[in-house]
Amino acid sequence: KAGVTQTPRYLIKTRGQQVTLSCSPISGHRSVSWYQQTPGQGLQFLFEYFSETQRNKGNFPGRFSGRQFSNSRSEMNVSTLELGDSALYLCASSPRTGGEETQYFGPGTRLLVL
Amino acid sequence: GENVEQHPSTLSVQEGDSAVIKCTYSDSASNYFPWYKQELGKGPQLIIDIRSNVGEKKDQRIAVTLNKTAKHFSLHITETQPEDSAVYFCASSGYSSASKIIFGSGTRLSIRP
User: Fold this and answer.
1) Region A86-91 average pLDDT
2) Are B64 and B73 in contact (CB under 8 A)?
3) In terms of C-beta density within 10 A (0-12 exposed, 13-18 middle, 19 or more buried), how is residue A41 classed?
4) Number of helical H runs and strand E runs in chain B
5) Which of the listed residues A17, A102, B37, B54 has the most CB atoms within 10 Å of its CB?
């Protein structure tokens, strides 16, 4: 089975721009979660989507948003980029939603904001 | 709020020796504890997990122990090999209707030849 795929793998943007990242979950997985990884804050939960609905949200500003399509693929959008948004954005999928579900991570999209 | 503390932040062991990484969690409702290994340029990979109804779980050279009373859980790697060099993250999540993992801050493990 193919793993979680994320596109693009690398991205350079300037402050004020917006960006859209894409995630394709493992086939059959219906839950997609997004995480931000930075050297200073570590791995932080952004949000989770299941059946095209946001199920949970972390402590991030409204500039961070996402959506999920009927085929379970998910996109994450960051508007009005700030320098501090530079990070590795990771997507994880699981078959179902729930705190005890094992999550499988993709390779991430590395975003650099200049 | 929910928090997972992980120690040590860096660990260097001689090849063939054992490595132990310890974590403490704050949310008593947590009942799922995965461990992830992250290599350079890659996303975290699940290496082992344990659920609250089990005190210990082993998979070849890797074992995890859980003490729910003390809210501690640990990763043990025996007979370490160069390919074990990576950053390891402990994590916890609780029974809920949504998926959300709280991660520790990570341990950079280096295996000395």
Assistant:
1) 98
2) yes
3) exposed
4) 0, 11
5) B37
* Overall average pLDDT of the A82-98 stretch: 94
Kindly determine whether residue A98 and residue B43, on different chains, have CB atoms separated by under 8 Å. no
Distance CA B111, CA B13 (A): 5
Residue B94 touches partner A, C-beta closer than 8 Å: yes
> What is the sign of the dihedral through the CA atoms of A47, A31, B42 and B91?
positive
Structure confidence by residue, pLDDT tens digits, A2-47: 899 999 999 999 999 999 999 999 999 999 999 999 998 899 999 9
Q: Phi/psi at B11 (nearest 5 deg)?
A: -150, 130
B77: its two tokens: 């790697």
Chain A: residue whose CA lies nearest to B1: A59
CA–CA gap between residue A56 and residue A34 (Å, rounded): 10
Helix, strand, or coil here: A84?
A: helix
What is the reported pLDDT for B88? 98
Residues in chain B within 8 Å Cβ distance of A89: none
- Nearest by CB to residue B99, choosing from A48, A105, A106, is A48
